[in-house]
Automatic annotation (TrEMBL):
Its EC number is 2.3.2.13, 3.5.1.44. The active site is at residues 278, 336, 359. The keyword Ribonucleoprotein does not apply. Binds 1 Ca(2+) ion per subunit. Pfam families: Transglut_C (PF00927), Transglut_core (PF01841), Transglut_N (PF00868). This is Protein-glutamine gamma-glutamyltransferase 2. Transmembrane segments: none annotated. GO terms for molecular function: GTP binding; metal ion binding; peptidase activity; protein-glutamine gamma-glutamyltransferase activity; protein-glutamine glutaminase activity. Belongs to the transglutaminase superfamily. Transglutaminase family. One of its GO terms (cellular component) is plasma membrane. GO terms for biological process: proteolysis. It catalyses: L-glutaminyl-[protein] + H2O = L-glutamyl-[protein] + NH4(+); L-glutaminyl-[protein] + histamine = 5-histaminyl-L-glutamyl-[protein] + NH4(+); L-glutaminyl-[protein] + (R)-noradrenaline = 5-(R)-noradrenalinyl-L-glutamyl-[protein] + NH4(+); L-glutaminyl-[protein] + serotonin = 5-serotonyl-L-glutamyl-[protein] + NH4(+). Residues 270-362 form the Transglutaminase-like domain.
Length: 689
């Protein structure tokens, strides 16, 4: 009888499998593979070689704390001649003396997560088993049968593999981009993402059921959307704050990446990290989803409605002086960011696969938890509000109507004719380049089109007629040139009288500092003209000068000034409202790279900025990071204040550890100027062999 087969050593071939599975950037310390795709391990026996027909080999894979076959969290499978289609399989690839190469493969519907791998060997009646290591299984956007399969290779590179990107902010009229270091392959991030899944309340309630549902990106997306915020006291990652008081944490404007946030969350025992706002919540969720293998991107919706009572109408109340009167919980945010993740929706009827909106910013509860989505973007466009999940809320964010009510002195309310427009310039970073892609058409049909009216009828919402009245008077607010921080600037009220009769009106112009979520601060500019006469067909421009000395103390870290114009026609009493958010531009950060960028060789960056303000900047510091470039964050504190109009220059050195196109991202903070961002693309040459 053949002697017992003895396993001497084994090799999980982390580096080779990492390259094949596009997970090499996660490092070669652990095996990370994608589901449905084979990976190779090598077994070396001592004493004698493996003999087919004499020796039997089988594997056990297990995930989660209570693995069972019926839940799909455990599988036992023998080494065979050909791969098994529906389950786990192991096939001998080649034999070389006492070394045996085996190809293992999971089904494309396997549960994602950390697995333990055990080898069982038997010869006749003798047997032994050996735990040969752990591996992590991810979703696979490259496998046609995976529910996250994405056909286009450039899109897979952008939405799964790219560790850096741009997030759009500012206003609808002045769109800005901020760089973001997603860093999903950086050291420790994968284990933190898996910890996030194991901290979620559904796992703590029923570990078996939770792990068994981890094959479904819809389920995972819902869990991630809930766990990125901490509003359910579920040990979530981020605490939100919108009031400009961030002294006991980090201002949301200061972050330039998800890595630091996720590492802080883990380091402090899963205590929420302070503080986030919508783009921070969305970016962290995007990191987690990309890390787990689900194609994801951050999108920005301008003039985003927060409709708390579900009537698809946002009522805003203004005094006769243009001051906002807070009677309604409904809000209009300058912009709002969420995540889209790409997945099939076998739980719905055909036609809803593809991009799904997921919103981790805590706004309204869904099934008792602060999370939102996944809502199929196609269902939002078609007005299919009854489908899962949370479609009415996202539909309102991009479609609600805004009605301004002017509250007269006697308390009566006058409905403004103008209805401002929600859901504009929905934006995301383009695939493979640093430009903006407008995806508004994926959320809504062109305004005024037949199709748009059909969708609204379906959504039982018939207030669109508001827009079609032409009262003959038109009012717009324009900006003369860029509004730079530290400078005075003009805004113009542009009035057109399109009628053949003279009109006599009162014009009120009021400017206030504002937050991006629609809240307003103190007044920083005002004009009240009691007698504006417009001849038939006449156009008039009325300027309002906004002085730096008036806005400098109350400008929030969002850098916004909200200008409201009220035009009241004396004869009819009609009131027209125009609103414009002016973005106050921060100075530019300049970045120069000195020397030839090469992998594993020191590189120097020279970073400079001019103080545009009339005050010196104290406690200044530059924060620099970039996946594959820097080892975590690098911080350079300034020893001296930066005098008004003076330039500050610093040099930082770092050693890029990965080749290819990378982004070096910089944030500047000080007492008077915060959240100033800049980035530079750097091509790192591979280390010569």
């Amino acid at each position: 009888m053949a002697e017992e087969l003895v396993l001497e050593t084994w090799d999980l071939q982390c580096e080779h499998n990492g390259r094949e599975h596009r997970t090499a950037e996660m490092g070669c310390q652990q095996l990370v593979v994608r589901r449905g795709q084979p990976f190779t391990i090598t077994l070396r026996f001592s004493g004698r070689a493996y003999e087919e027909g004499v020796d039997k080999l089988a594997f056990n894979v297990e995930t989660g704390p209570c693995p069972v076959e019926t839940s799909g969290t455990r599988s036992h499978f023998a080494v065979t001649d050909f791969p098994e289609e529906s389950g786990w399989s192991a096939v001998v690839q080649q034999q070389d003396g006492d070394s045996l190469s085996v190809s293992l493969c999971s089904p494309p519907s396997a549960r994602v997560g950390r697995y333990s791998l055990t080898l069982e060997m038997s010869t006749g009646y003798q047997g032994a088993s050996c735990h040969i290591g752990d591996f992590v299984l991810l979703f696979n956007a490259w496998h046609p049968e995976d529910t996250v399969f994405l056909r286009d290779e450039d899109e897979r590179c952008e939405y799964v593999l790219s560790q850096q990107g741009l997030i759009y902010q500012g206003t609808r009229d002045y769109i800005t981009s901020t760089p973001w270091n997603f860093g999903q392959f950086e050291e420790d991030i994968l284990s933190i993402c898996l910890k996030l899944l194991d901290t979620n309340p559904k796992f703590l309630r029923d570990q078996d059921q939770d792990c068994s549902r981890r094959n479904d990106p819809v389920y995972i997306g819902r869990v991630v959307s809930a766990m990125v915020n901490c509003n359910d006291e579920d040990r979530g990652v981020l605490a939100g704050r919108w009031d400009d008081h961030y002294e006991d944490g980090m201002s949301p404007m200061s972050w330039i990446g998800s890595v630091d946030i996720l590492k802080r969350w883990k380091k402090f025992g899963c205590q929420p990290v302070k503080y986030g706002q919508c783009w921070v919540f969305a970016a962290v969720a995007c990191t987690v989803m990309r890390c787990l293998g689900v194609p994801s991107r951050v999108v920005t919706n301008y003039n985003s409605a927060h409709d708390t009572n579900g009537n698809l109408v946002i009522d805003r109340y203004l005094s006769e002086l243009g001051v906002e009167d807070r009677r309604s919980r409904d809000m209009i945010w300058n912009f709002h960011c969420w995540v889209e993740s790409w997945m099939a929706r076998p739980d719905l009827a055909d036609g809803y696969d593809g991009w799904q909106a997921l919103d981790p910013t805590p706004q309204e509860k869904s099934e008792g938890v602060f999370c939102c989505g996944p809502a199929p973007v196609r269902a939002i466009r078609e007005g299919d509000l009854q489908l899962k999940y949370d479609i009415p809320f996202v539909f309102a964010e991009v479609n609600a109507d805004v009605v301004y009510w002017v509250v007269q002195r006697d308390g009566s309310q006058k409905k403004s004719i103008h209805s401002s427009v929600v859901g504009k310039n929905i934006s995301t970073k383009s695939v493979g380049k640093d430009s903006r892609e407008d995806i508004t058409h994926t959320y809504k049909y062109p305004e005024g089109s037949e199709k748009e009216r059909e969708v609204f009828a379906k959504a039982e919402h018939e207030t669109r007629s508001l827009r079609e009245e032409d009262e003959g008077l038109h009012l717009k607010i324009k900006l003369t040139e860029g509004a730079n921080n530290g400078c005075d600037f003009d805004v113009l009220a542009v009035i057109n009288n399109n009628a053949d009769v003279e009109r006599v009106c009162r014009l009120m112009l009021c400017a206030r500092t504002a937050g991006y979520n629609g809240t307003v601060g103190p007044q920083c500019g005002m004009k009240d003209l009691l007698n504006v006469t417009l001849a038939p067909r006449e156009d008039k421009c009325v300027p309002l000068r906004i002085l730096y000395e008036k806005y400098r103390e109350s400008l929030t870290q969002d850098n916004l000034i909200k200008v409201v114009a009220l035009l009241t026609e004396y004869q009819t009493g009609d009131v027209i409202v125009a609103v414009r958010d002016v973005y106050i531009q921060n100075p530019e950060i300049k970045i120069r790279i000195l020397g030839e960028p090469m992998q594993n060789r020191k590189l120097v960056a020279e970073i400079s900025l001019v103080n545009p303000l009339t005050d010196p900047l104290s406690n200044g510091l530059f924060v620099v990071e970039g996946a594959g470039l820097t080892d975590g964050q690098q911080i350079k504190e300034l020893e001296e204040p930066v005098e008004p109009q003076a330039e500050v220059k610093v040099r930082l050195d770092f050693v890029p550890h990965q080749a290819g196109l990378r982004k070096l991202m910089v944030d500047f903070e000080s007492d008077k100027l915060t959240g100033v961002k800049g980035y530079r693309n750097v091509i790192i040459a591979p280390q010569p062999k």
